[in-house]
Amino acid sequence: MRAIGFNTSYEIDEENSLIEFKAEKPISSEFDIVVKVIAASMNPVDTKVRVNSAKDIILDDPKILGYDGIGVIESIGSKVTNFKQGDKVFYAGDVTKNGSNAQFQLIDSRIVALAPTSISDEEAVVLPLTSLTAWEAMFDRMNIDPSENKTILIIGGAGGVGSIATQIAKQTTNLTVIATASREETTKWCKDMGADHVVNHRDLVNSVNEAGFESIDYIFNVANTFIHWDSMAELIAPQGKICSIVDTEEPIDINKLKAKSVTFIWEFMFTRAMFNTKDIQKQSDILAEITSLVDQSKIKSTLSKTFNGFSVENFKAAHKLSESGKAVGKTAIIF
């Protein structure tokens, strides 16, 4: 099969930062399925893995990126009971295994779900990773009660995760959603996603206060943990909860949270797949919920850019856009 990946870490402008190569078509067994991939989407994790995982070495087998996929099941393993050949599914994959930037992909059936039928493949493929991240952060990590009338601050509201987190919070909870943005374009995007208030992350504390809030019950940071740490510590309510998905580049003073008895927790969407946790099936269940919400027109795709064609050039362009820091919403690559 054709695949696109890398065998050493380069900046994206380097000629061999991404390469096309031939790979063996995978074979399904046990809980695994083989999917004929229709489309993939771009996530920051793609660029991070490309830049960091093969520094100063050459991999024996090129690494295939891609942590969102949609496609048709070609074969199923002996322990797969909830899908059949020909089903169209979508998923976010496993960062430790080869991804969706290939004609075929092997993936655990317990982390996939039937794809939405009311939207296009490119609109659907941008949803799994961000939706799982947002859902797990809010309901598995921060244990938000959907019925409570509290506040959530989403730092990085116009990105892929922030965009879908806003929608999920508005459609499935009673939370007041405050999202951050700093440009006219991103502010409009956050409002379009359903945010009740949009504040400026460049002056976060004052901006939140000016919006009428002295403190916040839940903070979901999808932008930068270190830069916003002091602001989060100041804004979080006593006994509040902070969840982040972004590694901190420098040490942070967690003592700032002690007096308020604040909970700080990480969300890493790949945990269940990486460690084959006992509740790995939960990711399939969450994605099924997302499909239902989409097909009921309660949440919409966060797609903002599409590249057409399975080519190194298109994947490089998607990586460049992601690394620019100016991407709004999500990017899809249709094969």
From TrEMBL:
Similarity field: Belongs to the zinc-containing alcohol dehydrogenase family. Quinone oxidoreductase subfamily.
Domain of life of the native organism: Bacteria
GO molecular-function terms, A-Z: oxidoreductase activity; RNA binding; zinc ion binding
Complex formation: Homotetramer.
UniProt protein name: Zinc-type alcohol dehydrogenase-like protein
Database matches in PROSITE patterns: QOR_ZETA_CRYSTAL (PS01162)
GO CC aspect terms: cytoplasm
InterPro entries: ADH-like_C, ADH-like_N, ADH_Zn_typ-1, ER, GroES-like_sf, NAD(P)-bd_dom_sf, Quin_OxRdtase/zeta-crystal_CS, Zinc-ADH_QOR/CCCR
Ranges for domain Enoyl reductase (ER): 17-333
Taxonomic source organism: Poseidonibacter ostreae
Protein keywords: Acetylation, Cytoplasm, Metal-binding, NADP, Oxidoreductase, RNA-binding, Zinc
Database matches in Pfam families: ADH_N, ADH_zinc_N
Compartments in which it is found: Cytoplasm
Main location: cytoplasm
